[in-house]
Amino acid sequence: MSTDIHARFRLDRGDFSLDIDLVLPGRGVTALFGHSGSGKTTCLRAMAGLERAPGGLFTLGDEVWQDESHGVFVPTHHRALGYVFQEASLFAHLSVRRNMEFGQKRGKKHDAPAEQRFDLASVAELLGIGSLLERMPASLSGGERQRVAIARALLTAPRLLLLDEPLAALDLKRKQEILPYLERLHDELSIPVIYVSHAPDEVARLADHLVLLDAGRVVASGPLSETLARADLPPAFADDAGVVLDTTLRGPEPDNLSQLDFADGCIHVGRRPETTGSRLRCRIHARDVSLALERPHASSILNILHATVTAVVATDTPGHVLVQMRVGTTPLLARITERSRRELGIAPGLPVWAQIKAVALLA
Question: What is the spatial distance between Cα 301 and Cα 267, in angstroms, rounded to a whole number?
């Protein structure tokens, strides 16, 4: 039995058109990422049935929600999905508990398997809102309202959870408040999540699969670490270029450092409070990686990895190039000047030493 999601939509609004054909994993978090106007929300609304694409197709495993070639179109209110908007659309006259109970009532309208069903208490615990159940929406912070909106969506027993930039309306403090709960959803949900965002750090922190959209077209689609590390993406994406590593914390070291192991090596960061063996995700920006032909013997940079160049491409910044490498099988990117590339003779197949100046931990 297939578990993949297949989405094929073509919409033409005159000044904007959407033309996508995607096969997405049926589990984990898929991020739709792109600049404003790239078609992210339109794509999400088409998945929900809020936008009807002539000739469109949308399936979840063997369940067909849209197949216009066979006259099939399941209206939104009959689709087992949860949808969370940028602004938490809670019922202002209902308490948090009653907002969540509304979601439960909707969930009872379709026969969902056990893995899709949540009880109110477990969802409240998962999202840290147990103490808010008797509160009214007007008394909640923006982050609290979004957590309640997600809880209500989960209680509908969805086959699919759609999140349309749920952090976009929040300030930095509220974003930091809600991100750990979104990570818990990532770790504990068995249903697929489609997450729309234009914030690279959110995507790097939460996603398993990445779809890059530009002007209504799919630029790239694939596993997060591989897709972020591609060197053939349009120049407009080069400023956000970098890789994401899934690492394991080995434990504290002298001088308040911690070692993080990944598939093909290790890196060092400031001491981490997590227990040994914890899984940590980190991001390495291409702009924070420099290259050398020989291993530096007198350098303040701790993280120096042996790599092999696989590709060199131009960026939209004059005089700069993006260098794609592999550390074993692990991808890595560096953004350097064209002059440095020329003087060092950087080209595919060349062995180099990559010096990582900064590591952004996403935990």
Answer: 11
In this structure, the answer to whether residues 207 and 351 fall within a common structural domain is no
Contact 192, 160 (CB under 8 A): yes
The answer to whether residues 211 and 255 belong to one domain is no
Single-letter amino acid, residue 109:
K
pLDDT in tens, 276-326: 998 889 889 999 999 999 999 888 898 999 999 999 998 878 899 999 999
What does the alpha-carbon distance between residue 345 and residue 351 come to, in Å, rounded to a whole number? 11
**Using an 8 Å Cβ cutoff, are 183 and 341 in contact?**
no
Q: Is 297 exposed, middle or buried (0-12, 13-18, 19+ CB in 10 A)?
A: exposed
Residues 6 or more apart whose Cβ sits within 8 Å of residue 277 = 248, 249
Q: How far apart are CA 281 and CA 52, in angstroms?
A: 37
Each residue's pLDDT tens digit, 101-134? 998 888 766 665 555 578 899 999 989 999 999 9
Shared domain check, 353 and 282 = yes
Considering the entire predicted model, what is its pTM? 0.87
Nearest to 60 by CA among 30, 18, 32, 17: 30
CB atoms within 10 A of CB 342: 10
Half-sphere exposure of 259 (CA within 13 A, CB side): 8
Residue 100: domain span: 5-228
CATH of the domain at 49: 3.40.50.300
Backbone phi, psi, residue 102, to 5°: -60, -40
**Rounded Cα distance, 166 and 147, in Å:** 9
The two three-digit tokens of residue 139, written as one number: 């008394």
Strand, helix or coil at 318? coil
